[in-house]
Amino acid sequence: MKIAFIGLGNMGGPMALNLHKAGHEVLAFDLSKAACDKVAEGGVRIGGDANATVQGAEVVISMLPASQHVEALFLGTGQAKGLLACLPAGTLVIDCSTIAAASARKVAEAAKAQQIDFIDAPVSGGTGGAIAGTLTFMVGGDAAVLERARPVLEKMGANIFHAGSVGAGQTAKICNNMLLGILMAGTSEAIALGVANGLDPKVLSEIMRRSSGGNWALEKYNPFPGVMETAPASKGYAGGFGTDLMLKDLGLAQENATAVKAATPLGGLARSLYAAHSLGGHGGLDFSSILQMFHKAR
Ligand code: NAD
């Protein structure tokens, strides 16, 4: 299948590589040359710009930071036309970015007017899941369009859930990430408390992992440096899932909560914690660096 892949960052890069390894004809593009070079090293061909990249593609996949990037790419800005205006009817567009459900619906409506199939398919599983091809996809859109997308999604993920109509994938994703933000902050707070009392972070983490405090952060993504070799915490909090991206997701959760009058006090507190952490100059570090709010490295 001919696939165009736009956005080759921490997640999009390994996802595009997995599609290439599975035998698809992938043409990819990112505004960052460094991101393009990394993927090109793995054998993926790079397009000149987004427009040139999607020419002749049956499937277009985007993996961009936030709503404004996805809207600008597909709908255009000012005089500049978006990709939807250039794609032929019948193209399948899969947006894997985490964005506002309202933005996903806006792009889906414009796609429908051009007889282009669209699903929102945000992911969970982190960069480890993207590299291993074991991501979880949370899909919003028509069931028939999901079936069309399934063979492609299966090359990048292990779990594919149909959350509901367009935008529902994004709603599921922000519920999940609100919980993740809370759990990572809480896990950091608990480890820091133990360490301040002289406990070994490795021993304490293992105790909690096997006890009632066990959670994904303790299983796969320990925030304390040196506890888990593969976690961003042990690599200077480089790569992974940026603090500013987590802040964006917690903001989306609060906007959504306001719209439906939901009470999300812990989500609101988590958003403020990550905002303060970002203001402290750590927006580009992996989100597990929130530990630094509670623990001072010696
Ligand atoms: P990233 O910042 O590493 O990568 C985003 C890439 O998009 C960058 O390389 C940037 O240059 C590129 N880009 C921006 N605008 C572009 C445009 N118009 N055309 C082409 N390229 C463009 O981000 P990431 O960590 O890969 O995350 C991507 C999305 O996935 C975000 O919405 C994030 O919330 C979500 N997500 C991330 C993780 C994770 O662990 N990193 C996990 C799940 C979901």
CATH topology of the largest domain: Rossmann fold
Tell me roughly what share of residues is in helical segments. Answer: 40-55%
Please give the domain count: 2
> What are the segments in which pLDDT stays under 50 over at least 5 consecutive residues?
none
The pLDDT mean sits at 97
What is the strand tally?
A: 11
Task: Sketch the major β-sheet.
Answer: 6 strands, parallel
Features:
298 residues, alpha/beta, Rossmann fold, 2 domains, 6-stranded parallel β-sheet, 3-stranded mixed β-sheet, binds nicotinamide-adenine-dinucleotide
Write the layout of secondary structure elements.
Layout (H helix, E strand, L loop, with lengths): L1 E5 L5 H10 L3 E5 L3 H9 L3 E2 L3 H5 L4 E4 L4 H9 E2 L2 E2 L10 E4 L5 H13 L3 E4 L2 E2 L1 H7 L2 E6 L2 H11 L3 E8 L3 H29 L4 H9 L6 H5 L22 H18 L4 H18 L16
Parallel strand pairs: 1-2, 1-4, 2-3, 4-7, 7-8, 10-11
Antiparallel strand pairs: 5-6, 9-10
Helix pairs in contact: 1-2, 1-6, 4-5, 8-11, 8-12, 11-12
This protein binds nicotinamide-adenine-dinucleotide (NAD).
Nicotinamide-adenine-dinucleotide binds next to helix 4, strand 9 and helix 6.
